[in-house]
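Researcher: Before we compare anything, I want clean individual predictions. No alignment, no superposition, just each chain on its own. First chain goes here; please echo the sequence and then give the structure tokens.
Model: Echoing the first chain and its structure:
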Amino acid sequence: MPKNTYEWTELYPEVDPDPDGERELKDVVVSVVGRMNGSDGKLVASIDGRVMLPPPDPDNFIAHENLTEEWLQEICEAANGEFFREALDRQLEAVRKRPRQKLLPCQVQEPSG
């Protein structure tokens, strides 16, 4: 079986809008949505999910504008990394084993003109 590789893509923070402006902390990230792609070099599969975050700790709060892509990836990896890789392995294996269409000689059409 080919060795699969994995990559986090499309990482998005979801922010509590605080429409009334009543909260002390602003732009609090309440969840992170992330997609992981898996590939065996020929086939590609993907899976995505949302990680809900606990309420922020005011003493350790990082402002939205100071968050990084690495922070988002760490959140998704800690919550879903192993599960996503296992799921992608199963998806890729299923695609490799899926029956393929193969036309009969009488069904093959000659290229037109």
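Researcher: Okay. Second chain, same rules.
Model: Second chain and its structure:
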Amino acid sequence: MTKPRFRRQFDKSLKYKGETNNLPSKTVPDMSIGLEQLLANHTRGINQEHLYREGIYSDQEIPKFDDFTDRDDFYDTLIEKKKLVEEQILKEKELLKQQREPEKQPEKPTE
């Protein structure tokens, strides 16, 4: 019989018995919280540090699409909004540049 390429837990020829952990335990006695206390803390707004997650809130509602055409239409409107915002930004930059130019005019030499 040839030796199998992979060892599996169901192979009869596998003679691996596992390993024994001889390291000391890292658990701390009486540091667990019961289910009743967890629920009470949750209802009072007292959360554990490792369980607390900050929510992400946005002004814009995330749409749910039933059809690909709806998604494409929404994408097109987003692209149009992006272009309008970029144009507005350019206009504001030009206005700022025009406002700064008169301030930077050199003084006329006196004769």
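Researcher: What stands out in the second chain?
Model: The two ends are 111 Å apart (CA to CA). Additionally, The first helix runs from residue 35 to 44.
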